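Worked Example 4.2. Consider the chain below.
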Amino acid sequence: MELNKKIYQLRKLAGMTQEQLAEKLNVSRQTLSKWENGSSVPDVESVVRLSALFHTSLEELLLEEAKHVEEEKTQITLEDLMRINAHNRRMNMLLCSGLLFLAIGIIIAAFERMLETTTVSLTYILYRYIAVGRYDPAPVNYTRLMFPAILAGIVGVVLCMCYFWGNRKEEIGRREKKEMKKKYLVGVVALTLVLVLTVCTVVFAKAGKNEEDNDPDNDLYGQIIAGLGDDEQFSLRNIGEKNNVLFTTDMTYDDGNGHNAAVYCDVYYALEGEVYPLGSIESMGTAFPVSFGEKCIYTASEHSLEVYRFDTEKKQWTIRQYEERFDENGDAAYQCIEDGEAKTISEKEYLDAMEEYGKGTVINFGYGASDNPY
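Applying the procedure from the previous section yields the following structure tokens:
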């Protein structure tokens, strides 16, 4: 091969322009162009610089029979190209399959959760009573329904790990591949163990929860509702406690704001298979409907307010009363009564309590499940 062609090929293999190579050789671009087109030849000093710059011997530059190793290394055969394409297809299939299995696992888990939430709700239980005449959750083993989601998730994780391992092993040497293979295998085994332990924990926890949900004692709200008379209504409300609170009454009225309200009702709270009745609570007049706030229930009159809370630790109802009283001269005094003890409070404290009652949610009563959001 002639010297001008060798200079051209070495420059192209190095990814350099004529200006860049000319600058490194301290010659003009026109001079380098003449070398490459064969109209002139470089001097000895320039040949030595070319040899040092491209890490090749003078013999390889000057002899026509010299082999260009770098050029040969850059050549890709059709067989190599087909192998690379086949590898890429396998890797893409692994990744798509892994993501598909993960998506299927997530969808199944979400469906199972939605189904469980629906079938254990009291609204569903009431509809079930209409259909089969029983107040109990649907006899579904939700633990078994989770196994397809778990299996799909594990398969998806393994396929994704195989994808990353398959791409990584093409970039490392034979010795490094063996070491990385061991590391990835250890990682996959560790991840699988973590998934299995997590799944077992969740499964056992859900199994215990399902047993608790199917406990006949948890049907107590249904028993109370089933025992209501034709003229009695009820409401289930989430006031921020662990479970819903049940309100029942036999007299309601339209408060003008779209609520079927009541001034008196009976209150029940179920916890750990037991029902804790508050008894009958009553407001004074339709201007003060029974309402609820954050973990509390309100009844009120023009000069008093009662706040009822359930103490989940002591498992009993507590009552706090706010009163406004007037002496013979018409001067107002305010007090708060709790646990049988009365203490004087300021007017601001009394007004703040009444303001909280004003922000409460009026309890809306109905005759059936369709009238109750809980």
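The domain at 3-74 is CATH 1.10.260.40 (434 Repressor (Amino-terminal Domain)). Residues 65-74, 209-218 have pLDDT under 50 and may be disordered. Compare this with Example 4.1 before moving on.
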